[in-house]
Amino acid sequence: MKIAYVLNTYPQPSHSFIRRELRALERQGFDVLRLAMRASDAELVDAGDQDEATKTEYVLAAGGLSLLTALLLEIRNPARFWSAWTTAVALGRRSSVGILRHLIYLAEAAWVKRRCAQTGTRHMHAHFGTNSTAVALLAQALGGPSYSFTAHGPEEFDAPDALSLGEKVNASGFAVAISSFGRSQLSRWAAFEAWEKIKVVHCGIEVEKFADPAPMPGGDLRLVAIGRFVEQKGQMILLHAMAEVVKTQPKTQLFLVGDGAMREDLEAAIAALELQNNVTLTGWLDEAGVRAQLAQAHALVMPSFAEGLPMVVMEAMAAMRPVIATYIAGTPELVLEGETGWLVPAGDAGRLADAICKLDQSPMSKRVEMGQAARDRVLARHNSDTEAAKLAGYIRDVAG
């Protein structure tokens, strides 16, 4: 079956889970057309992302004239065109970006619909309930194939009304949440009769890449945190926790993997807290580099203020490392307090420091035991092929 993935910016360093899902669906026998609105401005350091970029068609790269032509051709069916137009206007009125932006989405949708027709695409799947899902919804309204989408959070759940999240669920063939928490949030905004459309499909890991996890290292405590340098990821509170930790454990090391708008702020905080000898910023690393960091670490720290269910938590657990994470969103569905790691309140530097100290005081046998429990749990719940098979079944049910 030919399907299309409708995406906003793809590929991106922080969205490797989409690439994994795409490839797992291809192993399920799907032919996937990759349609992204735009290419990423970020440097693509991973070979997998670089390969995906060569396979992706970029809608905006077609040019304004091509998009306008595609839209004007839809006038040949006035009733359907008017219905889609009024839908775009209604979405725009509720949004923070306005009606004009949604009329641009309508033109993008017309182009996407045309490509789907040209390629024999029978279903569209979008990631994130933002503009990519708006484009898929409008393409369907213009007479294109059915659509579904995956909502991750936290962005969608921060502005569900402005994003018309409920309407997007209601009009879809089905909607995917990546956790039970996510399903509960979609249910808040969807019509009661649409609740049965909301499915849980976990983001998956490629098990073979973690087939032989490195043994738990000895030596002084070494932690790794992985993610975009943005406020919601909580790296700043982690630095304040580290400032407390090093008062009694001065050799503790933290490696921050990633990059983003907060880099200068983090560098300034490291200097102000006198953590230059304890904290290293690595920049973005490819998948092999991330696995190498996990192999050298005793645990992953995920101090986020807002999340969906972080892929790096899954990867750390697959690498047989316990996780220190905040008690938010879908994370407690995977990280079990005292069994696979520690959960702390978001924004509490003191409790985060206490958890790091508990890890440091845990004997090697306890660290290994927790790491093994973490690995067993994530492999049972987040195998990319198993989760793709669920998604494939839902797509076939809708597209026939």
TrEMBL record:
GO terms for molecular function: glycosyltransferase activity. Pfam families: Glyco_trans_1_4. InterPro entries: Glycosyltransferase_grp1 (IPR050194). SUPFAM superfamilies: UDP-Glycosyltransferase/glycogen phosphorylase. Keywords: Transferase. This is Glycosyltransferase. It comes from Tritonibacter litoralis. The lineage of its organism: Bacteria, Pseudomonadati, Pseudomonadota, Alphaproteobacteria, Rhodobacterales.
